[in-house]
Amino acid sequence: MNNGPIGIYDSGFGGLSVWRELYKALPNESLIYLGDGANCPYGNLSEEKIRLLAEKSVRRLLDCGCKMIVVACNTATAAAIEYLRAEFSSVPFVGLEPAVKPACLATRTGVVGVVATKRSLESAKFLTTLARYGEGVKVVKAVGEGFVEAVECSEEHTAATQQKVRAVIEPIIEAGADVIVLGCTHYPFLRDVFSEVVGDRDVRIIDSGEAVEKRVESLLDEFGIRADRDNIPRYEFMTFADEEYRRGLESKALDIK
Ligand code: DGL
């Protein structure tokens, strides 16, 4: 048993989509969310820069006594998870990866779309996953241009954002995809927009939220670090940006929970 908090880290607001899954499934676990904010978006940064930012963030969470770290950012996972696991070898880490495997298993047309950041799509980690699970499936990759910025600015529901989503996913659907993977933790906040653009076409939108939550539970058990059943959880929100940004994280979390 361990009543210490689980640390959840992202470049900004996106990891709150993972925070929500953990909040719902693990009601007695304390959660500390760190949304960098000062360096968001990560999508076009170099791998080296992202590794440095991830290390700084993880140190901050560990200084707060976190017993496990969830890197709730596909881009940071791709760039840094191996480095973080080696650097902090006694800490259990959970990373985020685009849900390529379930998508490839689910497709009936044999065409899958993956929308993510440029850095994620170009990463060795993603290309390895693709080679492992994408055999016999055509995978159409696309960068979600402007999606992260829309979520960061709370512009999920504007006409301009819908236009951006349409511009990215229409070509994927035209290529025959019946499953589209949201390969960035910011994108689940655009799920309604994706659904509107898809309309009544037979296309499933999937993300990694549920799989990550299951992985967190299995590591809590493996390390014997679940919180007591009667633990009263606390929820904290931190950032390297300013207090207004921090409050934004907190109020978005309250909104979605
Ligand atoms: N939420 C992030 C991800 O899952 C990062 C987006 C960004 O900062 O570009 O990839």
Plain-language structure description:
The chain has helices at 16-25, 47-63, 74-87, 100-106, 118-122, 124-133, 147-152, 159-174, 191-198, 209-222, 243-256, and strands at 6-10, 31-35, 68-71, 93-95, 111-116, 138-143, 179-182, 204-206, 235-238. β7 (179-182), α9 and β8 form a beta-alpha-beta unit. α1 (16-25) packs across α10 (209-222), α1 (16-25) packs across α11 and α2 crosses α3. The chain starts with 5 loop residues before the first strand and ends with a helix. It is 47% helix and 16% strand. It folds into two domains: 6-96 and 209-255, Rossmann fold (3-Layer(aba) Sandwich); 100-206, 3-Layer(aba) Sandwich (Rossmann fold), CATH 3.40.50.1860. The mean pLDDT is 96. The protein has a five-stranded parallel sheet with strand order 4-3-1-2-9, with helices on both faces. The protein has a four-stranded parallel sheet with strand order 6-5-7-8, with helices on both faces. By secondary structure, it is of the alpha/beta class.
